[in-house]
Amino acid sequence: MAEKMLSVATVPRSTQAAYYAAQGPANEVLELGLVPVPDPGPGEILVRMTCSGVNPSDVKARAGATRAMAWPRVVPHQDGSGVVEAVGHGSRFSPGDRVWVRFGQWQRSFGTAARRMVLPDDLAMPLPAEISDETGALLGVPALTAWLCVDSFNGPEGSTVLVQGRGAVAAYAIQFAKLRGYKVLVVTGSSRRAAEARTIGADETLLRTETNWPDRVRELTSGRGVDAVIEALFAANVRDYPRFMATRATAIVYGTDTADTTGIPARWFLQQSVTVRFVYLYRAAPARIAAAAQAVTDIAAKLKHGTITRLPLEQIVLAHELVENEEHEGRVVLSLSEANVPEETT
């Protein structure tokens, strides 16, 4: 709609962004400079980005660990938040709307590590007034993955769910499972992480360093085992499933440490009628992703999002290195408003 468009003169033709032209270590390939930004087309929005979330999937893509480069230059990061600056014909947004965005760099060369970006408006959600820009930039990949995992189980209230893994997806899964009325058990690698899991709702925590932890799970479930497991390291952990899962249980897998699945107890899965469901966010049905995005938006203010390390865009190398460091706790967000490289406009 013409009345919703900013004049061409106000739309930046280039913007400050971080990018890489080859995959490799962060300190070798990440650069900062000006990149062109198009006008928003039909159904698209131009967003002045305020924050860009940095996820493990972003640093793995930059390192070349998950896929090859499909473009000569990539502006990284899937998640972010910002303010709509201009809209294309037919967009549901208006200039001035606050939004959080997802899938910024999925099958696209231009992600959220830029002061401005254009993307389809169905990849954005309104950001409620009570949600900060930093929190909005945290929601995409982790919260949506966790929501789809919990929703994939969809068991009756009172079911017992075991969450294996660490990081943002596990933290959100704990909270979403509690909101569904499930009893939540968590297996983790340290007393500190166990304590953190309890602060966000875990009913019981177990340390992986204790070799008898599956027996303890059986004790906590009156001998029957858990109704579901939400799993980040499928190949490493699947061999233990017979020790703690109930008959007709469900394993929801959102990650695996290796492609080697040798030793899966296939006969046990068959005889116990255990279901395995894989959740790969980017390939989920669009309607499910849209429903998850709405659900996450509606409850974001009730969630605990963890500690946040805020860095300016100029420190994107450090941001990637922190996410790669397994000892670093919390989330990493680039605050794009702190950037100081001048922009060009036409």
List the helices and strands and how they pair.
Elements: E1 14-19, H1 26-29, E2 31-36, E3 44-54, H2 56-63, E4 79-87, E5 98-101, E6 116-120, E7 124-126, H3 133-136, H4 140-153, E8 160-164, H5 168-179, E9 183-188, H6 191-199, E10 204-207, H7 213-220, E11 226-231, H8 234-237, H9 241-244, E12 245-253, H10 266-271, E13 275-278, H11 286-299, E14 308-312, H12 316-324, E15 331-335
Parallel strand pairs: 8-9, 8-11, 9-10, 11-12, 12-13, 14-15
Antiparallel strand pairs: 1-2, 3-4, 3-6, 3-15, 4-5, 5-7
Protein architecture, described:
The relative contact order is 0.16. Helix 4 packs across helix 11. This protein is of the alpha/beta class. It folds into 2 domains: 170 residues, Medium-chain alcohol dehydrogenases, catalytic domain (Quinone Oxidoreductase, Chain A, domain 1), CATH 3.90.180; 142 residues, 3-Layer(aba) Sandwich (Rossmann fold). 28% of the residues lie in helices and 25% in strands. It is globular, with a radius of gyration of 21 Å.
Q: Could you tell me the mean pLDDT?
A: 91
CATH class of the largest domain: Alpha Beta
Number of strands: 15
- Structural class by SSE content: alpha/beta
For the biggest sheet, the summary is: 7 strands, mixed
Features:
single chain, 346 residues, alpha/beta, Quinone Oxidoreductase, Chain A, domain 1, Rossmann fold, 2 domains, six-stranded parallel sheet, 28% helix
Task: Give the structure's gist in a few sentences.
The chain is an alpha/beta fold. The chain has helices at residues 26-29, 56-63, 133-136, 140-153, 168-179, 191-199, 213-220, 234-237, 241-244, 266-271, 286-299, 316-324, and strands spanning 14-19, 31-36, 44-54, 79-87, 98-101, 116-120, 124-126, 160-164, 183-188, 204-207, 226-231, 245-253, 275-278, 308-312, 331-335.
